[in-house]
Amino acid sequence: MKSFKYAFKGFFHALMNEANFRVEVVIASFFVSMGLLFGITMLEWAILFLALGFLLSAEIMNTLIEEFMDHLIKEHHEGVRVIKDLSAAYVLTASITSLLVFVFIIWNYIFK
Protein backbone atom coordinates (compact mmCIF):
# COMPACT_ATOMS: atom_id res chain seq x y z
CA MET A 1 0.00 0.00 0.00
CA LYS A 2 2.89 2.38 0.67
CA SER A 3 3.93 2.17 -2.96
CA PHE A 4 0.51 3.51 -4.01
CA LYS A 5 0.88 6.33 -1.50
CA TYR A 6 4.25 7.30 -2.98
CA ALA A 7 2.94 6.97 -6.53
CA PHE A 8 0.03 9.30 -5.79
CA LYS A 9 2.41 11.74 -4.08
CA GLY A 10 4.51 11.77 -7.24
CA PHE A 11 1.45 12.24 -9.45
CA PHE A 12 0.19 15.14 -7.36
CA HIS A 13 3.68 16.64 -7.20
CA ALA A 14 3.71 16.72 -11.00
CA LEU A 15 0.17 18.12 -11.05
CA MET A 16 0.98 20.91 -8.59
CA ASN A 17 4.48 21.80 -9.81
CA GLU A 18 4.64 21.12 -13.54
CA ALA A 19 2.70 23.49 -15.81
CA ASN A 20 3.09 21.20 -18.84
CA PHE A 21 1.65 18.28 -16.90
CA ARG A 22 -1.38 20.37 -15.93
CA VAL A 23 -1.88 21.39 -19.57
CA GLU A 24 -1.74 17.74 -20.64
CA VAL A 25 -4.26 16.77 -17.94
CA VAL A 26 -6.61 19.47 -19.31
CA ILE A 27 -6.08 18.15 -22.85
CA ALA A 28 -6.74 14.59 -21.66
CA SER A 29 -9.92 15.80 -19.93
CA PHE A 30 -11.04 17.45 -23.17
CA PHE A 31 -10.41 14.25 -25.14
CA VAL A 32 -12.39 12.23 -22.58
CA SER A 33 -15.22 14.80 -22.67
CA MET A 34 -15.38 14.52 -26.45
CA GLY A 35 -15.42 10.74 -26.17
CA LEU A 36 -18.40 10.99 -23.82
CA LEU A 37 -20.13 13.50 -26.08
CA PHE A 38 -19.75 11.34 -29.19
CA GLY A 39 -20.38 8.03 -27.43
CA ILE A 40 -17.24 6.28 -28.63
CA THR A 41 -17.03 2.49 -28.46
CA MET A 42 -15.32 0.44 -25.75
CA LEU A 43 -12.44 -0.34 -28.10
CA GLU A 44 -12.04 3.35 -28.90
CA TRP A 45 -12.04 4.12 -25.15
CA ALA A 46 -9.30 1.55 -24.62
CA ILE A 47 -7.18 3.00 -27.42
CA LEU A 48 -7.79 6.57 -26.23
CA PHE A 49 -6.83 5.75 -22.64
CA LEU A 50 -3.68 3.97 -23.81
CA ALA A 51 -2.69 7.06 -25.78
CA LEU A 52 -3.47 9.40 -22.88
CA GLY A 53 -1.60 7.17 -20.44
CA PHE A 54 1.35 7.25 -22.82
CA LEU A 55 1.19 11.06 -22.93
CA LEU A 56 0.98 11.60 -19.17
CA SER A 57 3.63 8.96 -18.50
CA ALA A 58 5.96 10.62 -21.00
CA GLU A 59 5.55 13.97 -19.27
CA ILE A 60 6.24 12.41 -15.87
CA MET A 61 9.33 10.69 -17.31
CA ASN A 62 10.49 14.00 -18.79
CA THR A 63 10.08 15.70 -15.42
CA LEU A 64 11.92 12.87 -13.70
CA ILE A 65 14.86 13.13 -16.12
CA GLU A 66 15.03 16.93 -15.83
CA GLU A 67 14.88 16.84 -12.02
CA PHE A 68 17.49 14.10 -11.85
CA MET A 69 19.89 15.86 -14.20
CA ASP A 70 19.46 19.21 -12.39
CA HIS A 71 20.15 17.51 -9.06
CA LEU A 72 23.13 15.56 -10.38
CA ILE A 73 24.88 18.29 -12.37
CA LYS A 74 24.51 21.90 -11.21
CA GLU A 75 26.46 23.70 -13.94
CA HIS A 76 25.65 23.89 -17.64
CA HIS A 77 26.80 20.80 -19.47
CA GLU A 78 26.27 20.01 -23.15
CA GLY A 79 25.51 16.36 -22.39
CA VAL A 80 22.76 17.39 -19.96
CA ARG A 81 21.23 19.65 -22.61
CA VAL A 82 21.16 16.77 -25.10
CA ILE A 83 19.56 14.45 -22.52
CA LYS A 84 16.89 17.05 -21.72
CA ASP A 85 16.24 17.71 -25.42
CA LEU A 86 15.80 13.99 -26.06
CA SER A 87 13.44 13.76 -23.10
CA ALA A 88 11.41 16.67 -24.49
CA ALA A 89 11.34 14.94 -27.88
CA TYR A 90 9.85 11.90 -26.15
CA VAL A 91 7.01 14.07 -24.83
CA LEU A 92 6.53 15.65 -28.25
CA THR A 93 6.24 12.19 -29.82
CA ALA A 94 3.68 11.16 -27.19
CA SER A 95 1.73 14.39 -27.73
CA ILE A 96 1.55 13.96 -31.49
CA THR A 97 0.62 10.30 -31.13
CA SER A 98 -2.18 11.11 -28.67
CA LEU A 99 -3.51 13.87 -30.89
CA LEU A 100 -3.55 11.57 -33.93
CA VAL A 101 -5.31 8.82 -31.98
CA PHE A 102 -7.94 11.34 -30.87
CA VAL A 103 -8.42 12.66 -34.42
CA PHE A 104 -8.71 9.15 -35.88
CA ILE A 105 -11.31 8.18 -33.27
CA ILE A 106 -13.41 11.36 -33.45
CA TRP A 107 -13.17 11.87 -37.23
CA ASN A 108 -15.98 9.48 -38.14
CA TYR A 109 -18.27 10.91 -35.48
CA ILE A 110 -17.81 14.46 -36.76
CA PHE A 111 -18.01 13.66 -40.49
CA LYS A 112 -20.79 11.04 -40.57
Automatic annotation (TrEMBL):
Its cofactor is Mg(2+). Belongs to the bacterial diacylglycerol kinase family. One of its GO terms (cellular component) is plasma membrane. ATP binds at Y6, E18, E66, E75, H76, H77, K84, D85. The active site is at E59. PANTHER family: DIACYLGLYCEROL KINASE (PTHR34299). Mn(2+), Zn(2+), Cd(2+) and Co(2+) support activity to lesser extents. This is Diacylglycerol kinase. The keyword Metal-binding applies. A divalent metal cation binds at E18, E66. The keyword Magnesium applies.
